[in-house]
Amino acid sequence: MAEWFDRFPAVAEFQDDSYLLDPRLAGISVKIRSGRTFEVKIYRSSLGILDTAGRARGHLESWQKWSFPVTPLSKVGGGPAGWTLVRKKRRISQFLVADGRIQAVLAGGGEEPRCAVELTEVRLRDESWWTLGFEATGPTSLLQSHLEATATLVFACDLPEGIELGTESSMPYVEWLCLRLPAYRSGFRRLRCSGGCRRRTARTTRPRRWR
Prior knowledge:
mainly beta, 211 residues, 15% helix, 4 helices, Hypothetical Protein Pfu-838710-001, 10-stranded antiparallel β-sheet
């Protein structure tokens, strides 16, 4: 997956995020990013299905996010009950419209409407997974068209052999974590309001999923 994504300029970073999994909050995602930022995301609506010429198919959703700085925390994922630590290596590319066409640029800077594409290697317990997410920001009227144009460019090349990106594994991180961890899977039901184009999971040993 990393070689496939290397077609675009990207910023790489390591990050440890702690997700609140218990209590389970329908339509709400809560996490502490890198021990320094408290983030809350609220599901707003489903925008249908993102389908890119048979190469990828996932749920397209609208979420609203709030971020608050917090005092640096240590070992959040291994401490309070209900929190799970996820270690990530992220590659982030930004895409914006320039000269009438969508182009990849280095992350950061500028206030233009853009779509961030994030390929992440995730370490969860003793397993490695790949996740791929698209997040468009800017005027509401441009969000969907910008994201769809970005996805068309990203998926213009065939995926690596064995990788399948379908709606069955298109979901938010919190839902995926609950399904992967036995402690939270018991009694868990899919509370996602209609899908999740935020994260698509693809396990490295059996590359079939996308976050």
